[in-house]
Structure formats: structure tokens, C-alpha cells
């Protein structure tokens, strides 16, 4: 599916993550800022990529500001951001959830 | 102990007093009407009833960010909360790209939460966050071919496009293989951004090596740089023009292989004269600055200025503008005279630069 509008989810507070999704034409591109990037940037990207794939999103610019969020938090924020970006916020995708 | 975000309204005298006192405590004391004028929303972070953090939104600029860490659970937590609240507010307004102007010592704090530094000087810095950002702006610019050695740039507001602008660009086009004409994006002018851009394109359509592009958010008119956090004795115009020049030199010019920038000389405006001097200082040695003498009017009574054209529009005297603008601009002015005069009647300022 194509990103319909830029969308953001999450916060900049400790143990959270802020994810912004916007339109792109060349695959999934990450722009990641994290206090723990060295150890965990691959894990963070993998979690978000998984969510994007579940929604069939293959072209998107993903901007992430991570504040040490746990995997399930990243997943939840990613789902919210995708639903907003696809304009599906009122119709959750239960299979992904 | 919970800290909550609440709106602050400057129309409420008590709130305004408390807010101003809080900022003054932290070294922010410029509350000129000009700085406060564009503010759309102010939020406050409260620990019970004590104000411990604040920030404001003006268009796509985050302003007046100040946080007191006294009594905070962790350092930086309040700052991150204030910025989160401001960004969520911007998102609900459909804005996903914003800027902050701040003191150099706070650059790192903003970079930690995803801002990217665009330019800095001893006095201040400009950072951006969100999408589309400068990377995307630069990627979308048409690039010169690898054979082109001499690439120049001209930055104009063109409010509206005159023979003077055309003269400047023609000079550059004669001496270079490609010329980028960046039209400043700023809807504070009598002519809207899209109108100015269209008139520039129409007036230069016959020059094959000229590329006209919108300046995006990066050819910011330096006059719009906020200066509320500057000490009163600092040269605001110097800080503004230095940032503008560095942004051009470090980001825009390399992307398009620009080696020369052309400006008109400025016998009339002190501000523009300072701007040109700053450009010359900052762009050297990598980028050459060429100052082209301004085109005189046909009767040699003075230089061609867009301000004169605007005054002729206000007076409805085509006779006074027809010799100052290309035929394309003249035609457009005739077709839109009534609506332009309506804008002036509604209070659009026409006497500025």
C-alpha cells in the first residue's frame, strides 16, 4: 500500500520512541537517531520493517527517534504510525495486532 | 507528582506575566511585538501550579523553548516532553516539518531528539526536523551535467520581477554555463510565492541556461529569522545573514556545484548592504561573490527597484511601471491590477525591501 499522508506516533520521552512515516519512491529508507543505536539499530529497524511488511507498505521514509524503547513499544508505535499514514486509524488491522 | 501540559494565552495578563518572568529568569527577554506577533500557540509544562517548561509555535518554527530542570526527575525529561507536545500540536495542524533557532550550546539537546543542524554561527543556530527535509529538497533540484564548469546562483525575492532582476540574471547567464535562480518562498510579500515564481519563469523563459526554482524553506528571507534569544546588544542582522550565508554555502551550493553567486549592489538599503558584505565574507574562498551594479532607469534618475513598481501599482499608474518591468510582468500586472490594489487596501505593506 502507498503512504497517503505523513504521520507521526510516539513521544520523545524516556523508554518511548517517535516514528514518522512519509512518502517515498525508493523502498524503505530509515533515518534513525537513538541513544542505543550502536547496539540496537538493526533490531529497531527489523521490528518496524516487520510491521510495514504486514501492512504491505514497501515505499516509505521512516524517521525514528528512539529513547530506549522496548520492542513491544516500538511495535505499537509503528502500528499506530502506519494506520495514520494509510488513513486507517478507525479500522485497525486485527491480523497484525 | 504529575506534570501536565496546559495552554498559555498571552491575552490573559496573569499568564503572560508569569510566562515572561519564567523566560526572563532563563535569559530570554525579548518580547517585542514583532517576535510575539506570529505566535499561534504556547504551551506550558506545569509541576502542580509551577511553570517548569514552555515552548511556542509560529508557522513551522518552534520558538521560546525554555525548561527549568530544578526538581525534575531526570535531566532533559521536561525538555523532551515540551518538544513532544509541540510536535504533536504541529502534527494535528498537518505540519510535519519544522525549524528551531537556538543558542549554539543547545544544538546537542535538539540533535538528541532528531533535529538536524543546518547552519550555526557564534551567536545562533538553525536546525530542522521532519519531512520533507533539506535532503529531499536538494535531491529534487535539477543537477548540472558533469561538463558544466561554471555554475552560478542568484537568490531573489522578485516582488515583482523587474528589468533589474532580469539584468542581474542575464549578466550571470552570459558568464556561466548554468544559472540557478532561487526565488525566496515567503508569503509576506505583496505578490504570493507562486505568482512571483511564475513571473520569474516567464521573464527568463528565453534564457536556455537559466533554471528557476523555488527556494523552499532554505532560502529563508533572512528578515524572517527570529532573534528573540539574542542579547540586546548583539548584531541581529549579522547573526541572521551569517546563518543564511552558511546554509547556502554548506548545503545548497555543493549539491548544485555552484561556484559563483551574483548579487545586485545596494546603494539604498543599509540592511541589504550589510547582507552583501556578510555574503562576501562567508562565501569566500570556495564561492565567489560577484556584485553587479544596479540597472539604472532609462532616464538615469535612479536604479530600478521593485518598490517603485509596487508604488506605481498602488497608484494605478501603468505609465510609472511599464519601463521598469519585462513585458511578461507588465501584462500580468494589467490583468491583476484590481486584486493587487485590493491587497494593498487590506493593509499589505509595500514599502519594505
TrEMBL record, chain A:
GO cellular component: cytoplasm
Keyword annotations from UniProtKB, A to Z: Cytoplasm, Lyase, Phosphoprotein
PTM-bearing positions, type O-(phosphoribosyl dephospho-coenzyme A)serine: 14
Protein origin, superkingdom: Bacteria
Chief localisation class: cytoplasm
Pfam families: ACP
Molecular functions per Gene Ontology: lyase activity
Subcellular location: Cytoplasm
InterPro entries: CitD, Mal_deCO2ase/Cit_lyase_ACP
TM regions (residue ranges): none
Assembly with partners or alone: Oligomer with a subunit composition of (alpha,beta,gamma)6.
Protein family (similarity comment): Belongs to the CitD family.
General function of this protein: Covalent carrier of the coenzyme of citrate lyase.
Name recorded for this polypeptide: Citrate lyase acyl carrier protein
Protein's organism: Leuconostoc holzapfelii
Lineage: Bacteria, Bacillati, Bacillota, Bacilli, Lactobacillales
Automatic annotation (TrEMBL), chain B:
SMART domains, alphabetized: Citrate_ly_lig
UniProt keyword terms in alphabetical order: ATP-binding, Ligase, Lyase, Nucleotide-binding
Keyword check for Nucleotide-binding: yes
UniProt GO MF annotations: [citrate (pro-3S)-lyase] ligase activity; ATP binding; lyase activity
InterPro entries, per database record: Citrate_lyase_ligase, Citrate_lyase_ligase_C, Cyt_trans-like, Rossmann-like_a/b/a_fold
EC number: 6.2.1.22
Catalysed reactions, as listed in the record: holo-[citrate lyase ACP] + acetate + ATP = acetyl-[citrate lyase ACP] + AMP + diphosphate
Location of the Citrate lyase ligase C-terminal domain: 151-333
Function as written in the Swiss-Prot or TrEMBL entry: Acetylation of prosthetic group (2-(5''-phosphoribosyl)-3'-dephosphocoenzyme-A) of the gamma subunit of citrate lyase.
Alphabetized PANTHER family for the sequence: [CITRATE [PRO-3S]-LYASE] LIGASE (PTHR40599)
Designated name of the protein: [Citrate [pro-3S]-lyase] ligase
Organism for this UniProt entry: Leuconostoc holzapfelii
Recorded name of the encoding gene: citC
Amino acid at each position: 500500500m502507498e503512504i497517503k499522508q505523513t504521520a507521526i506516533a510516539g513521544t520523545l520521552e524516556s523508554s518511548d520512541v517517535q516514528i514518522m512515516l512519509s512518502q517515498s519512491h525508493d523502498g524503505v529508507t530509515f533515518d534513525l537517531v537513538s541513544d542505543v543505536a550502536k547496539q540496537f539499530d538493526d533490531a529497531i529497524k527489523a521490528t518496524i520493517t516487520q510491521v510495514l511488511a504486514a501492512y504491505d507498505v514497501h515505499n516509505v521514509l521512516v524517521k525514528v527517534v528512539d529513547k530506549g524503547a522496548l520492542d513491544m513499544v516500538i511495535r505499537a508505535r509503528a502500528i499506530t504510525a502506519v494506520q495514520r499514514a494509510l488513513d486507517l486509524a478507525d479500522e485497525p488491522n486485527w491480523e497484525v495486532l | 507528582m504529575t506534570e501536565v501540559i496546559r495552554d498559555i494565552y498571552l491575552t490573559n495578563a496573569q499568564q503572560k506575566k508569569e510566562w515572561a518572568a519564567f523566560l526572563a529568569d532563563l535569559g530570554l527577554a525579548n518580547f517585542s511585538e514583532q517576535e510575539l506577533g506570529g505566535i499561534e500557540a504556547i504551551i506550558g509544562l506545569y509541576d502542580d501550579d509551577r511553570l517548569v517548561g514552555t515552548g511556542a509555535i509560529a508557522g513551522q518554527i518552534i520558538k521560546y523553548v525554555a525548561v527549568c530542570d530544578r526538581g525534575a526527575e531526570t535531566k532533559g525529561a521536561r525538555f523532551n516532553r515540551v518538544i513532544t507536545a509541540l510536535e504533536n500540536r504541529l502534527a494535528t495542524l498537518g505540519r510535519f516539518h519544522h525549524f528551531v533557532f537556538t543558542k549554539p550550546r543547545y544544538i546537542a539537546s535538539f540533535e538528541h531528539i532528531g533535529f538536524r543542524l543546518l547552519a550555526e554561527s557564534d551567536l545562533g543556530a538553525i536546525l530542522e526536523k521532519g519531512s520533507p527535509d533539506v535532503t529531499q529538497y536538494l535531491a529534487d533540484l535539477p543537477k548540472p551535467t558533469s561538463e558544466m564548469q561554471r555554475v552560478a546562483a542568484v537568490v531573489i525575492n522578485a516582488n515583482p520581477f523587474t528589468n533589474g532582476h532580469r539584468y542581474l540574471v542575464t549578466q550571470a547567464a552570459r558568464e556561466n554555463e548554468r544559472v540557478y535562480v532561487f526565488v525566496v518562498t515567503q508569503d509576506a510579500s505583496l505578490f504570493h510565492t507562486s505568482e512571483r515564481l511564475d513571473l520569474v519563469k516567464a521573464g527568463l523563459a528565453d534564457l536556455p541556461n537559466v533554471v528557476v526554482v523555488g527556494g523552499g524553506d532554505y532560502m529563508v528571507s533572512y528578515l524572517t529569522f527570529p532573534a528573540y534569544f539574542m542579547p540586546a546588544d548583539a548584531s541581529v542582522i549579522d547573526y541572521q545573514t551569517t546563518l543564511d550565508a552558511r546554509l547556502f554555502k554548506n548545503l545548497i551550493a555543493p549539491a548544485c556545484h555552484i561556484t559563483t553567486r551574483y548579487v545586485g549592489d545596494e546603494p539604498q538599503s543599509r540592511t541589504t548592504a550589510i547582507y552583501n558584505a556578510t555574503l562576501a565574507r562567508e562565501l569566500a574562498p570556495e564561492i565567489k561573490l560577484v556584485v553587479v551594479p544596479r540597472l539604472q532607469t532609462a532616464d538615469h534618475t535612479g536604479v530600478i527597484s521593485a518598490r517603485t513598481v509596487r508604488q506605481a501599482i498602488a497608484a494605478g499608474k501603468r505609465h510609472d511601471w511599464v519601463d521598469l518591468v519585462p513585458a511578461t510582468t507588465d501584462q500580468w500586472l494589467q490583468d491583476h491590477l484590481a486584486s493587487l490594489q485590493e491587497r494593498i487596501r487590506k493593509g499589505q505593506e509595500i514599502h519594505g525591501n
